[in-house]
Design goal:
homotetramer, 308 residues, alpha+beta, Beta-lactamase, 5-stranded antiparallel beta sheet, 3-stranded antiparallel beta sheet, 14 helices, 46% helix, EC 3.5.1.2 (chains A, B, C, D), Glutaminase (chains A, B, C, D), Beta-lactam/transpept-like (chains A, B, C, D), hydrolase (chains A, B, C, D)
Chain lengths: 308, 308, 308, 308
């Protein structure tokens, strides 16, 4: 690319091309608070290492980040435990849907990776051992690395997740039965449902992701949060495990480390090169934003940001 | 057999032969209350259609009936729902350990049969819809059909099960996530942990089983509890599913419909012919009483009570 | 029942009642030779310990016995190896369709029971070690125990099975990879496809089953083929495993040890009491004869032959 | 890195550091021809886009490339079918060992990706439809892209694989039963066993891989073999699926698209940047070269060739 000034038109062009896809797919409906979202919402934001942020569409409107929060809790837990983290959770793709309990039985309570729900519960449990109020610690961390002090939970969403979260409760109890949760099940679930309910915009998410773009450092944070090597490893897990059981297809089509959420957001990061976030609420069968994935594919194809 | 008077010596002889086996196997240890049991306990009781009861060894000492309670809750739920019961739970052997969640995922929350834990939770849920205090209703039912008014829960065991019952909590939440539990998860678990904690002796268990021996009627109960055809069907499920993933081996070696519990009891019933109960706390790898199973095998071989 | 003379009218009555069901279900279509069968065929035969044979409908017309042959090869292999047989094959229900490879992987090449295809291949392999021409030995055995010298293979069916038998070839190779087939894969498959292609009538099948009715002896055979205890054990495996993944439902509804084949036949046996065979080509989703199963259920209900 | 001249010392240094690891792990022993290899063999070769080749240790000694051949057959089949290839085989990590049949049953004969054995058999089947002598076509292709005319099969290895290849035969028959093999099973297996038996050195493998380094073109080949986009996609599949069920761990630790073989070789490629091959015969539990993986990790860490 010649200069960064070209990125806004590319983002806008990409959004126009994928806009027809927002009519397809399904908005997440397992809790009422998510199902009422306007499916025509579509936004995108790009962060470059020089600090430049480029946006298009609804890039400044907040949405439920849901599983994208798992990137930030992983960073927090990785900081806390270092490589001991990998005794509690694996880093292999699961080959199964995000909420499957089957592998957990075979693997005796050690989830395959930190981005399936089971793995994220273990990561959250680690934070429960570390903080008195883990959900507040998570929120504070995200505010700090993004530099946006008014990011917050949507407590209605958190409450609704708790009311409908039988599958997650099953998983937490199951992991506990294998001894791989230390905190009480309800504490872990509360923290987990809260982290999922955090609301951010595309622009805020790419700002929060700058800690990965800058190999572990963030503007308002004095010390390095992770080492460059640890950042690369987070990125590798995003690539191989970040988009549920479609991670292979994502790597194939898009070639970017990415983490998606059922709120319709997808956050992609290439350390040293960029962070990119897209939001479109309607999901494909794997639970990834349908138009969002296509937007990432088009953008990566045109800009050469693919890691391959 | 010539006359019933021969049965006591046979029971005694069988117990002597299997006594060395009480040194092998493992007493259930997942809750402290069960692990402290004296592994040398060994008792057996036989009930015949003429009302005769024959006992040997520790046949009058109470123990934790655990999963044997599933026979009685099945009878209660079958009475309540009739064949509609089979829309909520199957009647196929599972081919998997009693507490596996794998099949539940494949089968979308409909447990394979009422004798694996998942199926028993659904059965208990049915009773939760029927009774304000399901655990008391279960206790009352067992007191009534056995004619023993002082049978009771062991509340320490029930509490301990609740404290360590993460696997059952996982299963209940998982079934709830598929919509196959109607009552709140905690209510179902409470009733379930209580029913498992009921304490009865071999002699009391065969008396409670007379409702199956007599094709649905019990002495102190004015109306028929089940039809003869329904009783045969309960017996068939005991044969194919009553001893966890060793049911085929049980049918092969012993040839009696039976239900075992991790307290070390096994209750066997042949409608129209007899009820037989054995107790020895140490379990084999499948969770069935090791000496108890051998005792049933020897007794069935010598008396010709096998159904095959 | 008062006297045996009553049985023919019951058989006829039962066939009339189930005849409408022959319009439902699906005739096996994986090889052309089976798919061309007339779905209105319907026959039934009963053998009693006194030697009496009672028949109705198309009871004297031969059909492809398919998996019913597994009963006879099991008897042959059990004779050969005795209890050492159970080191090569289990006796637990599988909980999975008859041709599943999944459990075989978990169980390291030891099939769950001798009546799923994998188990029958191991049984046939045992006969391959015993006989130079195992398929002829199997045929000769069936001719002998039934006393019908002109029973034969349908070689077109055997050839067609071989041409379309990729799933069985997969299974045989898979078992071989675990070391649980001794003979060359092709030999085992050839013998297996031949045994499945044998054609017999209901009347001939109940005559062949008299060896189980008479606890191991057959008229034209001087020595006992199995001990009474072994016969009971074969019957128990028929009950728990004889009708694919519907064995629990069969035990529940019908209460008879039985083995079905995709040719539409079902052979039921109660040692000491009777053998019963029904034939109707259209199958239910589990691969068992639809009208045939209902006929067994009605007959068992009316005559009290159920083992429960 | 400053200049390419620095690479040979780095390769040599890395080999010295990992040499103690060659004492650990296990040489593949499922066929005698592989088990006799000298476990102290250790070699490494690097190819850079400017055509430079750097080698260390036993980089010029040929070994059995085994599954590394799957990279080349994938390129051939991708050329032939284009994106229609993905109707026959997926591109998702499997989460299971390389030779598992479990997923194949769930996925109805469409293997998860072209690098597990099942997927490679489908790829080879595609070549069987394309070429009269597919094994010769594969050999010719590898000779051509590497520019080494005397690369050849080890026919003893090919024959031995055929004699012990029951698991692969099981898989091929299983896929055929779902209709996803077109050629006769034996033809596919023959071609497959031959491609696995090809012998090449590290230096030859990185030369063959230049077609990926140069985004689809190779020196002696007039036309482009793949488009740049297709090359990136092959690389993405190598990253997510190239090292069996350890692909996530490989991406995490090493960060290079790579394909391993049980002969002890691992070929890594970053399009536009380099090809790297290592050989050490002893394998870890996942079937990847133990010392080889460590060598890649050290080299990637020191040179910054990681894609993350």
């Amino acid at each position: 690319m010649d200069t960064a000034t070209h990125f806004t038109p590319i983002l806008e062009q990409v959004l126009e091309e994928v806009r027809p896809l927002t009519l397809h797919g399904k908005v997440a409906s397992y809790i009422p608070e998510l199902s009422h979202i306007d499916r025509s919402k579509l936004g995108m934001a790009l962060y470059l290492p020089d600090g430049g942020i480029y946006t298009a569409g609804d890039a400044h409107e907040r949405f439920s980040i849901q599983s994208i929060s798992k990137v930030f809790t992983l960073v927090m837990a990785y900081r806390t435990l270092g490589n001991a983290l990998w005794e509690r959770v694996g880093r292999e793709p699961s080959g199964n849907p995000f909420n499957s309990l089957v592998q957990l039985e075979t693997d005796k309570g050690v989830p395959r990776n930190p981005f399936i729900n089971a793995g994220a519960l273990v990561v959250t449990d680690i934070l429960c051992s570390q903080y008195v109020n883990p959900h507040l610690a998570i929120l504070e961390f995200i505010r700090q690395v993004s530099g946006v002090p008014d990011i917050n939970f949507n407590t209605r969403v958190a409450r609704s997740e708790a009311q409908h979260g039988f599958r997650n409760a099953a998983m937490a109890n199951f992991i506990k039965s294998f001894g791989n949760l230390k905190a009480p099940v309800d504490n872990v679930l509360q923290a987990y449902f809260h982290q999922c309910s955090i609301e951010m915009s595309c622009a805020e998410l790419v700002r929060a992701a700058q800690l990965l773009v800058h190999y572990g450092t963030a503007p308002g944070v004095s010390e390095a949060l992770l080492t460059p090597s640890e950042v690369r490893r987070v990125a590798s897990i995003m690539l191989t495990c970040g988009t549920y059981d479609a991670a292979g297809d994502f790597a194939f089509r898009i070639g970017l480390p990415a983490k998606s959420g059922v709120g319709g957001g997808i956050l992609a990061v290439v350390p040293g090169r960029m962070a990119l976030c897209v939001w479109s609420p309607a999901l494909d069968v794997h639970g990834n934003s349908l138009a969002g994935a296509k937007a990432l594919e088009l953008f990566a194809g045109r800009t050469g940001f693919s890691i391959f």
